[in-house]
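Now for one protein, fold included:
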Amino acid sequence: MTTTSPRTIPAAAYGLETLRFDEEAEANRIGEAIRHYLVTNKRKGIVLGVSGGIDSSVVAALAVKALGPDRVFALHMPEQESSDDTIGFSTKLTDALGIDSVLEDISPVLVGLGAYQRRDDAIRRVVPAYGQGWKSKIVLPSVVDSDAFRLFSVVVEDPSGAQSTHRLTTEAYLEIVAATNFKQRARKALEYFHADRLNYAVAGTPNRLEYDQGFFVKLGDGAADVKPIAHLYKSQVYAMAAHLGVPEEIQARPSTTDTYSLEQSQEEFYFSLPYQRMDLCLYGLNHDVPTAEVAEATGLTVEQVERVYRDIEQKRRTTAYFHAAPVLVDEVPLNIKTS
């Protein structure tokens, strides 16, 4: 499925109004792309995981608009460290859309793979006392505050509720991320199980910020047959949610990773800024908007905007591997004949 940016509506001055677009026209264009993919690849419908977050909710609503509720199947896939309200939000969505869904608790899979144990072992390299009853998350200093080299830290909370922050070694950081990535890969395996049994295609849910900046797990949430909103900025995803009637509670829910046992925002872990300002910086960089105009629209200084730009470019370079297809030593023609 190939898409371009939605046709935006001209605004008087640079700002969030610049990202306004015709939601109905765009929803129809996305729907046509979904239907074309299914016909071309002889698939009957769409499977996707729903988390109760804005992105998966919009993709589900777009699929229902394109295909009808009978050809969309959703998976609720919590695990023992998921937010307590995740299932409530995702169920509210599937009920509102009238689509079939199934609950797949991935905790036993993660225990079998040693995901929790491997992560905890890595954390104990820097916090030896870390153990039963503790919680944690990974954080990264904001690029806006300083141009210094940024290093990941782990925030831990002991059973009494006391928190402390510890600088991670490269080895500990990589092992924590590698173990945590089991969560996204386990979910994707289940999505493809249901897609295979139904002869459906799997829909991915990254928005443009996530897709551009490599905020996904290779062969985890980065794996999909169609990615209907990868060209939409996060602000546009929220606008589409309102247009499609996604439950208001989901529209108002703060964006989180819902990956670590401590609550964690996406900007704590990865993005430089909250999504509204990040959208304006990314759009400004992509469309050569004068830096001074981006600074005024975001409330940042020109120097801070330039730091964000450097961070965007750095993430594009370091996550290019996530987008890369397997490399073949030599070309292997498929010689597919069309009837």
User: Anything to note?
Assistant: Residues 140 and 152 are 5 Å apart (CA to CA). Residues 170-198 form the longest helix (29 residues). Strands lie at 46-50, 72-76, 100-103, 135-139, 153-157, 163-167, 201-202.
